[in-house]
Structures are given as structure tokens and as C-alpha cells.
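Sample 1 of the test manifest.
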Amino acid sequence: MGDIVTLFGEMVQKACRKDPLAARRLLRFGYQAKKLQLMAMPGRHTTKAAQMAAVQTMASMIAPLAHPERAAMVSLFLPCEPLQVVGLHPYSCEGFGCFLAGTQAEQEFLHYAESEGLPETFCSYHKIFIGAAEKGLMPKPRFILNTTLACDANLLTFRRMAEHFQVPQFVVDVPYEPNEDGVRYVADQLREMVRFVEKQTGQQIPDDRLSEAVARSQRSMDQFDRYMTLRADKKILGELTGEMFSAFALHTLLGTPETEAYTSQCLKEIPGAQPASGVRLLWMHTTPFWVEPLRQVTDFNPDVQVVACDMCFEGFVKAVPSNPYDAMARRVVYSAFNGPVTRRIQRGIEAARQVKADGVVWFCHWGCKHTLGGAQLAKEQFEAAGLPCLVLDGDGCDRSHGGEGQLATRMDAFVEMLRAERGEVV
Amino acid sequence: MSTTWYICKYTPVELLEALGGDCQVLDYMPENFDLSDEVSHPNLCGFGKAVIEACMEGKVKELVLVNCCDTIRSAYDVLLAHGKLEFLFMLDMLHCGDSCAREKTKRELLRLAEAYAAYKGTQFQPQRFREAFCPVSRPSEPYLSVLGGRVGEGLFKQIEQTMPLPVRNDTCVHNRSVCPPPDGLDGLDALMEWYAGELLGQLPCMRMTDAAGRKRLYQDPHLQGVIYHTVKFCDYYGFEYSQLRRELSVPMLKVESDYTLQSSGQLRTRLEAFAESLAPQDQRKGRKHMSGNGYYVGIDSGSTSTDVAILDKDKHIVAQVILPTGAGAAAGAERALEQALEQAGLKMEDISATVTTGYGRSAIQQGDKSITEITCHAKGAHFLDPEVRTIIDIGGQDSKVIRVDEQGNVVNFVMNDKCAAGTGRFLELMARTLELSMDEMSTAGLNWKEDITISSMCTVFAESEVVSLIAQNKSRADIIHGLNESVASKTYALCRRIGGEPVYMMTGGVSKNQGVAQAIQRKLGAELRISDQAQLNGALGAALFAMELDG
């Protein structure tokens, strides 16, 4: 399978050199084929819920390729409910960065972006996307919406993309301090954003329809939160890629009936699951799903399971859906990624206790200064809370940063340490 | 009085001074980041690490930060936990300047004023506030500008000393543009309302949503050239650099530092080469009649080899020597020069002028002048083949691409950054892993069958990758082909960065490697000319400059 993907990735990269539109068609065809495969043959160990998240995310990648005129480019943390109301597809920059890496088609675009003068140290997800867009693989969206939350790359990538595609852009400026003043400030901007979307599309976004979507978001978050609590005593096998699918379902697709169905399915699978056993890990940040030796440790392994990832639950807050702007603003302002990194660490500690994790992996994705900068504090504070923490340096999507062997060795050693702490024979 | 340090132009310096503060910009370049690496992460941007280092060393007791970027937010997190500062505050500065943002910023200013006044035990002095504003002026004479990410004190001094024109520091905090309040505005509240707008309305930095106003920095009629500085792991300014590559009408040099002076050797070469390209007539300054019998020496002291060329007055090469540099540049140069004189049957007295170039150029005593290898390579290549417009030079320690005009003057150049990937050293290490000589490496990849991609750009990881390919029984030819392609990719990216155009010439030790040369040729989709004298190119250029010294 790996070789088919390698071959496909090479075909996309080569096609893009001569005819970017043909490469885009090829990519769309490949993703459609993958979606069919996920629907028909999801894999022996894949749960129904994981299959739903994978299919849903795959469909969301195909939609902007098939109908770019009905797609709005967005950053990961942007509340997308207004887009759902007018039937626009969210077009995720980070998502495509991730998917192109999964397709093994990232190197051509990384090199191109760097040869255009972009820093080698810039976030690889964003760099892949910029390279692919500027080489003509990615289609022109209707417009661009992004927040300033969590990552400087948002400010840079989306501005550059707006200039490249010559499309309008709306930026939601998220203040650093998570407080009620910030919620009001962001809610006002979201109202403006809705007016912007209405103007761009010529369609109305009625408050009641928006409230419905936000209510679905709230129910989805509540269900997933309950799932995390109940999962604490259960063994549900999964894979690193699945955490990323889940993160997309709970962000750009949050508010859709599909995401609500997914979180509902997560809950349905709890009663039938086996009792918890093996080493349980909380994963902080994105997952380097391309590192094969690491997947051998974490994927569908009854002895080692990643039981939660903070990319999925960082924005879970209680809000009143009847005030949709306040609810959406609350999600970004009180996101664990906003404000001092200690908020993210504390949220991690709570989640680790909620899912009964034995240890925490703090994954320092290349170029993510927020995660890198907090690494030592995270280690200190998780360990002070009785949660062993492994700081793992790597890259979520760029193979040229290498070090697969080193990543797997550290992970293996950490798991051995946790097993020894549990009194198991290593 | 204790100093309150700040790092960002959006800092309300005048407000702090009105509350009794003595404010200074923190531009400290440390020796290393030992203390910072202990409490944060080595891959934070160098400036952020320098801020942490300064605080951890105890140099800074009062610090006002701005929510500039991910790194500074991280530095704040780390300093809150470990900093032992007497006063630490981070101002939440928004990314736009509309009325809501101004209102919110005003509240932030009042929050800072309250905390700082309580710390200092002072009160807001309106008169001091007004007096604290400094006039903002733009140059009225030709000048060079350092743009981009903030440049440390030491590096800026080095730039000033090297350049032929006055240099302005227009990086980051240094292009602050806040004007005094209008007359008649009174009271803290009213003043802060106005001040919030004034701070947010400055010439924007790259973190602002609308950065279009930055054009003022590089559309100045007196601007003669730009040194664009980026700090390793700071991403904001790489984007502006990428845009300026296409838009700027004056010469531009890109330099990157990690906020220590450790890389000054490599930056020195680039700065000097840029200065030479701005003022080529400077090389003819001081032209005078030299003694000797009309023979001219060029010495290129590289990291791997020292090359010497001697020309007669008709530009015929009368001697050429290539020797390993050995432990010392000076001794290596002396040895090579002796051999060259012997080869030509000349004595030192016959030599009219000598120019040195290469990394060791300043350490060599024999020269009348030293000129960077970039300018010398351009000269040498133009001499060997006047049609050449782009030179690709891959040596032992670095690789560079130089664009030249029809007279052989440097138009633009780029060098790789403190990394062995894509250099001769990378190939040497890989040859050792594969147990091959460099000559064998040159041809062993030509008959490849399987197209293997060596994905790791890092030399150390690439070595592990090669070892695992050997373990998978992949053929040597295929592995070497993969390595050649990897060097070619890196080189091609450098070419694209400065808009390389045909005719291409390859020089430097790696030009002898047929596999690499062919791979680069494929990437470029154009012929790569390799002269028999390719390795001697730098020395040849130096000898030609020596001839120009003799009037």
C-alpha cells in the first residue's frame, strides 16, 4: 500500500510540473478512490466512528477540489458554522498540508516554497500548502477567512494566499487574554465576518439557522467530552492518523450533522468496548502519522494506545447556542491554545485525568514556536502533576526532517518506562 | 536609575517614561544560548532566546514585552516561571487598528500604567509624557537600509563598518514612528485614547493584518540598497523577503543570523561581497604602479584547498597550484605560493601584485588586497567564458550561486546557511559511509536503475538514511544517484532564489563530480559549462584583480 501511495505522490508531483490542472484532477481522483476504499474497506481494526471521521474529512478535502467556487479557505480554528448555513465548503490550508504529506506528495511543494524565499523553519503544513497553491495545484477559493489564534503562520499564509489568488480576506483578531472582554471583541468581529460572507455570496445567514448549527457544535463537543470520560475505562484501538481526522471533524466540520453523528457513534461504541488495559497516552499537538516506526508503536496496538489528542478538545467550552456569536467567540477566546501556555498544559492535565492517561507526549512539530517554547514548562508541570511527559521533536508532515529511527527509539523507551511504572514486565 | 528594557516598537515607551521609567531597547547578542536552552527549546527564534538568556544571566531586571509573536509569548511564559525579574509585563497588542482595537488597546495601556506606577511608586506626569517623544526623520542623502527581522548591535556595527554608504537600521523595533500628541489634549484617559491610535497606526510590522504601509521603507528615493536580515526561526520577515525579491528595484543582500556573533565569518564574506558589488569602482581606487616584472598572483584560501594562479601581463596563466589547505590558512598559502613560483620559474621580486580571496584571505600576509571569493569567482568566470551569467560554486564548506552581468560584475548572489547539506562536505561524508573515494563517487551513480529519493536534508539524518538503504540491499549506484539528486535539489533551490539564468557555469571542487553536475543540469533544464580551470576560478579572479591594481 505504501508503494502505491509513493507512486501516486510522485505522479501528482510530476504532473504538477507540466500541467497543474491535470495534477489537481489526479489528486481529486485519488482522494475519491481513497474515500471509496475507506467506505468499503476501512481496515480490520478501524471502528465505525473512526471510519466516519475519515470519510467525512476525506469528503471535505474533495469538495474544494471539485467545486472551488463553493469553497472558502479557512484556518483550523475559525468557527465555520456561518459557512455551513450558506452551503460553502471549508477549504482547510492545514488539512491540505496534512493530506498532501499523507499522499507523499509534499517534497516538490516544500522545495518550491523554500526556493521562493520562504523560511526553511516555517511550519511545514503551511509551507506545503503555499508551495502547492503557488505551483497551481490548489484551486482559487471564493474568499479567505482566518483567525490569529495560536499560530503566527495564520497571519502570513492567509495574507499571502489572498494576494496570490486575488480574493477577499477577513481576519478575526483573537486577543491574547482569555476573558469576557475578549469574547465580546471577537463576537463583534464574527458578526462582521457574517456580513462579509453574506456580501460575498449574496446569501442571507439567518440567526436561527446559525443557532441551529452552533447548537449542533455544542452537542458534538458535549458528546465527545462524555466519550473521553467514558473511554477512561475502555480499550478502543485507533491510529495516529485517526486523531487528525477527529481534529478536522471537531474544527472545520464542527456544526455539521456529520460531526454530530460521528461523536454520537463514539458514544455508542463505549458499551461494547473491552475494559482498559495497556499503556495509555495523551498526545499534545499534531501527530507525525507518516513516521512508520512510530505507527508500529501507537497504531492498533493493544499494549499502547493514544487515548486523546489536544488538537481535538482544546476548544471545548460551555456556551449558549441561542447566542451563536457569543458561543463561537467563546470557543476561540477560551481555547486552550490562547493565552499563556500554562493554560494548555493545565487543560492537558485535566484531560489526562479524564481519560486516565499514564503519560503524555508533547510533540514539538518543526516550526511551531508555541509548542516548542512551552516544551520544558510542559514537562515540568505534567510531571509535577504525576504524569510522566516525553518531549518529542519531529515534523508532522515533512519527511526531509527525517529522524524516524530516533523518534521511535524515544517513544519505545518512554513506553518501556511507563510499563515498568505500572509493574509490567518490559 | 534602573533600566526598563523593551523589545517592540509598539511598546508605549513614552508612557513608561512619564511614569518615571528609563527605557532602552534590548538588542543583546549573547555568546551562546545555554541558559535559554535549559528552560525553553533550541528551535525558538534566536532573538527570543537572546531575551531569555539576558534575563537568566541577570542582565535584565525590568522587562516590558509585547504580544509580538509565538516566540515572544513563549519567552514570556518561560520568564514568568523562571525569570526572577522584578518587573515583567506583556502588553496584548492587537493586529489591526480599527476603532474597537484602539478602545481595547487603550484599556491595555491603562492596565500597564497601573502596574508600572505601582511598581515604581510614581504617578503619570503629562509633561514628561510629551517630552518623551523623539522626532522621526527620514534620510535626505543616499543610504543603505537594513530591513527585516531585528539585527543585534554587534552585527549592525559590522554592517556599518563594511558598507560604502551610511546605513540605517530599519529593522523591527528600530523603525518606530510615533509622533507627539496634539496640543490641548489633557488627562490620562484622553491621552491614552489618542496614544492607542498613534501606536497602532505606526508604520506596520509584519505581524499586523494590513502590512501594506511597509512599502514606505523600501520605496524611498534615497535608498541605494537593502541588507535584508532574518533571524533563524523567525518566520515573519522571510515572507517580506520573498515578496521583495520580485519587487525591489535596488540591490538586496539576504543575511540570516541566529542572534549570536558566531556566524560572523560567513556573514563577513557576504557583507564584503555586497559592498564590493555596490561600489565596483572601489577596487580600482588607489590604483598605482607596482614594482615587479608584470606577474600577478591570486591566492584562494578555501576550507579544503588553497589555490594559486599566476598570470603574466597578457593574462596567460603561467602557474596553477591546488594544495590541501591543512591546519592553517597562512602556512597553506605560503606553501602553495612557493610551489607556484617554482612552477613558473619566478621569484617573489617578479610579482607585481597579489590579491587574496577565500575564507582564509585575511589571515594571509602576502596580499596587497583581499577581495571576497564571490567577486573573484564572478571575475574568473567572466574571464574563462564571457557568456556566463550564473555561476554555481560548490566547495567543501559552502555552496553559492552568483549572478553576473555582461561585464562580470556581481548582480546578485546567495550562499547556503550554516549547513553541510548540499556541499562538498556532505558528499565526502556520504562517500565515507559508502566506503568510496571521491573519484569513485563522481561516476558511481551514473548507471542507476531505481530512482531513490534521499528525503533527509540534514547531513546526519541523510547518513542514517544511507545506512538503512545499504541494509535494504539497495545498489550503490542507486543510492549515489539519490544523493546527487539531493545536492542538485538544494542547489537548484538556491538558483531559483536569485533568479538564475543561462549561461550557467559550475565551479568549485564538486564541479568535478560528474553525477552531481549532470543532476544539476537536469534540474536546470539547461547546459552547465564546466571549465578545465573550474577549481582555479577564484584564484584566477583574484589574479585578474591583482592586475587591475597595477596601474
